Amino acid sequence: MDLKDKNILLGVTGGIAAYKSPEIVSILKKNGANVKVVMTESAIEFVTPLTFQTMSNNVVHYKMFEQLSNMDVEHISLAKWADMIVVAPASANTIAKFAMGMADNLLTTVLSASRSKIMIVPAMNTYMLNSVANVENMNKLKNRGVIVTQTLHDLLACNDIGDGKMLEPSQIVDLIDFHLTEKDLEGYNFVITAGPTQESIDPVRFISNHSSGKMGYELAKAATKRGANVTLISGPTNLTIPNVDKFVSVLSTQDMYNAVEEYFKKTDVLIKAAAPADFKPKNYSQEKLKKTDANMNSIELVPNTDIAKHFGAIKTKQVIVGFAAESRDELNYGLKKLESKNFDMIVINNITQENAGFKKDINTVKIVDRNKNITEPGTMPKEQLSHVILDKVLEFLKAR
Ligand code: PMT
Fold first, then answer.
1. Alpha-carbon distances of 13 from 17, 40, 70, 90, 110, rounded to whole Å
2. Which residue intervals of the chain bear CATH 3.40.50.1950?
3. Which ligand 1 atom sits nearest the alpha carbon of residue 277?
4. pLDDT tens across 183-227, in order?
5. What is the pTM of this model?
6. 266 C-alpha vs ligand 1 centroid, how far in Å?
7. β-strand 229-234 against 206-207: which pairing, if any?
8. What percentage of the chain's residues is helix, strand, coil (to nearest 5)?
């Protein structure tokens, strides 16, 4: 998440969901954003301005005429200050006023005067949400370029079950982050492979490895956030499927190869963060092998298709990023893979290092490009590392 030094103006309107809004401030602050809060008079009935003041470290604004600071015109200076205005929760009343261009309180006045991005996060009774007037108002705002988010389907405060619950604070902050991120990968098709593969021995057992899929999933999320069309081809993992254009679930290395082949021609960037099994059993047993079976003592293995090598050999315009998981002499082995698989860039991790490799949320890598430039970005979260990798991919794309 990259919200450092971003100015977020949070508008809070009167609704029971307002009790969750301080958490939005908290998450934004933790991620380095500057936050100011504007409340409507009815919002104050639900949460005190002091709560937001304490959490944001800023004066909370709610009176239209009494808070001129340094002779600034408050609604103009707040509107100019914000990189993004987020109204959460947004009541039907405030949505209607904003859609109509009314400016009868500080929040609606700031909204009317703003030229920055605006995100409306509705929260209300399901019948109000779906009322003809509210739907028309939300559509009007969408047509003006305002971001109007979904609501959640749940048991609501009024005891009705349906749409209308405000998104969770973490989801709201994710959306703020998404909408404030420059879409510098827009128009590019990415295929990213992630996770382990499984090679079945019999209906019960398989050969696999320790890949959790975290590195590949973070890359997929980061590329999506930057506007790329992402197809994520994943072996079995325990991770939540991220918000990507296409998610393809595979089991074996052959399945992964088939999936890459389907998309490769239209791909601009192939990132091979997966750890496909290099070998598979020569014979698959349809029946569960018994402990007493003679062939349980040894399983004959045969090499699997090397997906990266195959597509490296036939690539035309594609930028291909490989990974190398090594347990010693990583730079040497990595360089050999860069050449033999015709990668444009390789990300090398020594999986024996404490802060690197399988399952961890952080990674320590060396990145080597085809011109043998070596970058060592240091130990960092896989999310942040993904952006470092994507920055380099963008350089290759621009130079094509
Ligand atoms: O998933 P995590 O828990 O987050 O861990 C991340 C990771 C350590 C799995 C990842 O960062 C990584 O290093 N992936 C590559 C693992 C691997 O298979 O390395 P390799 O050195 O065996 O293969 C080199 C390259 O060829 C890799 O890009 C691999 O995807 C590819 N390959 C390998 C074998 C094969 N049959 N087909 C392939 O395409």
1. 9, 5, 26, 6, 13
2. 7-180
3. 36
4. 999 999 999 999 999 999 999 999 999 999 999 999 999 999 999
5. 0.88
6. 23
7. unpaired
8. 35, 25, 40
CB-based contacts of 1, cutoff 8 Å, min separation 6: 31, 173, 174, 177, 383
Residues 6+ apart with CB under 8 A from 159: none
CATH of domain 189-399: 3.40.50.10300
CA distance 269 to 396: 10
Token pair listed for 175: 């959306």
CATH topology of domain 7-180: Rossmann fold (3.40.50)
With a 6 Å cutoff on the Cβ, whether 14 touches ligand 1 is no
Q: Probe ligand 1: pick from 270, 279, 323, 341, max atoms within 8 Å of CB?
A: 323
Amino acid 58 reads: N
| CB of 255 closer than 6 angstroms to any ligand 1 atom | no
Q: 24-63: per-residue pLDDT in tens?
A: 999 999 999 999 999 999 999 999 999 999 999 999 998 8
Q: Sign of torsion, CA 268 272 276 278?
A: positive
CB-based burial, 181-219: b 16+ in 10 Å, e otherwise: beeebeebbbbbbbbbbbbbbbeeebbbbebbbbbbbbb
